[in-house]
Amino acid sequence: MGGEGRDLGFGYLPSSFARVVDLAQLFVCAALSRFRAAGEGTAFREGRTSAGGGRDGGRATGHEGELPTSQGLAVADLTAGNGWDTLFLARAVGEGGRVWAFDLQEEAIRRTEARLREAGLLGRVTLLRADHAELARHVRGPLHAAMMNLGYLPGGDRSKTTRPPSTLRAVEEALRLLVPGGILTVVAYPGHAGGDEEAEALLALARRTPPHRARVVRSEVLGTKTRAPFLLVWEAV
């Protein structure tokens, strides 16, 4: 991987990786700032989850069962991984906000939980060991933003990676839940095993997204020596 790098908590990342991750967070920040300025929150509830629920078991951590209805920003991290995007979202929603974070790997849930606990923000997040394609099963009501950072768990088993069928369904589910002006960011990584297929499937989905449903933006770093990751952003209409 070419280019200088820096540590974002994912380990050592080339600058092309770091920039698209940063850009995804900037898009989400801008959207949430607009909602906050307009005084738009939402009354949200989550579905009940318990050990053994969901495709690979659904565990709610931080809050079990239904949340009391409250006003605030509602967001989802559909690939919790090492917990950095989840932590970013927990800070971004502020008090009264709610984050749902999904990952199929128990190790990812443990790492994310530890990061949130250390930051004192676990109470804002529901951690779910569940397939992100089952988003609508666990989250009822609208979302203001959702994030996906695809590929494998950094520092984990590289054979366990996101797959096109589940990824595409998760994107569709998120788009159905986004309020007008809501943002979905997806960072895709061509170049690793399965990454090219997933990236092409996402681009095809982006191209066929009806303009009356969402606007789609693609951003990437050009001139890299290897196939660089790219960012897709859907803004619900």
UniProtKB/TrEMBL annotation:
Which InterPro entries does this UniProt record tie to the protein?
MnmM_MeTrfase (IPR010719), SAM-dependent_MTases_sf (IPR029063)
What are the protein's GO molecular function terms?
methyltransferase activity
A single GO BP: methylation
Q: Which organism is it from?
A: Brockia lithotrophica
> What name has this protein been given in UniProt?
Putative rRNA methylase
- What CDD domains has UniProt attached to this entry? AdoMet_MTases (cd02440)
Which residue intervals are annotated with compositional bias (Basic and acidic residues) in the record?
A: 56-66
Extract the Pfam families matched here: rRNA_methylase
Q: List the coiled-coil residues.
A: none
Q: Which UniProt keywords apply?
A: Methyltransferase, Transferase
Q: Where in this protein does the record put region Disordered?
A: 45-70
Which SUPFAM superfamilies does the protein's record reference? S-adenosyl-L-methionine-dependent methyltransferases
